[in-house]
Amino acid sequence: MEFSMIEALVKSDKVIFSKNRHARSSVSDQFHLVHSNNIESPYYTGYVRCVSFNSLMKHDLARSGTTHLQQHTNRCKGKSKTAYQPSSSSSSLHQHKIGSFFQPKCKIPAKLKEKVCDAVLDFIVHDIRPPHAIEGKGLQSLVSAYIEIGGKCGNVTVDTILPSRSTVKRKLDDKCKLVKSKFSRSTKSHC
Question: Distance (Å, rounded) from C-alpha 46 to C-alpha 15?
Fold first, then answer.
């Protein structure tokens, strides 16, 4: 599988990590295997991800040794560790989505963070929302969609993106019906 294809899967959270349970080398503990997140037939992609330093590397389980993994580890020694540190409560069977291993591509300037904080405060005050509203998955999904659009289209006004109230109501009715039918099917299968 090509590196660009793996990167696309990584960015879309369509991969999962697992430890290599058959590894004989201790260096293998510092890397997770990258698997497709295809429910019907998950497969090993031929890549590993450095747990400490978030590097994606090609690794053929059948033919590759661990020398290149050891060299990577040696090069990274002394660098500050970034994202993933497993908690003591996490199970070895727990698989993390690859998105949780990423750092932002750039450091977000303090002025931009302050601007976001001010916008959050405006949201809470103007719409009379509790502060924990910003922790909701729905709002986070909405913000992520806007960030993605901004990344692809540049600066756009909210009016050009935000759907009308009637569009939201119509689609909300459809979404509720879909969720209701899925819930109904899942409860029937468990009974």
Answer: 12
pLDDT score of 78 more than 70: no
For the full predicted model, state whether its pTM sits above 0.90: no
d(CA 98, CA 84): 10
- The total number of residues written for the chain in this structure: 191
Task: Give the span between the Cα atoms of 168 and 28, in whole angstroms.
Answer: 49
Query: Distance between CA 111 and CA 94 in Å, rounded?
Result: 37
- Tell which residue, 103, 102, 114, 86, has the closest CA to residue 19: 86
Percent of the chain with pLDDT over 70: 66
Angle at 119 between CA 125 and CA 167, to 5 degrees: 85
Could you tell me the strand order of the sheet in which 44-50 lies?
Answer: 15-18, 31-36, 44-50, 56-58
- What 3-state class would DSSP assign to 56? strand
Contact status, residue 187 vs residue 180, Cβ threshold 8 Å: no
Q: What structural domains and CATH numbers belong to the chain?
A: 3-101 (no CATH), 110-190 (1.10.10.1070)
How far is residue 113's CA from residue 119's CA, in Å, rounded to a whole number?
A: 10
In the chain, the amino acid numbered 56 is L
Q: What is the pLDDT of residues 105-127, one digit of tens each?
A: 677 888 988 998 899 899 899 99
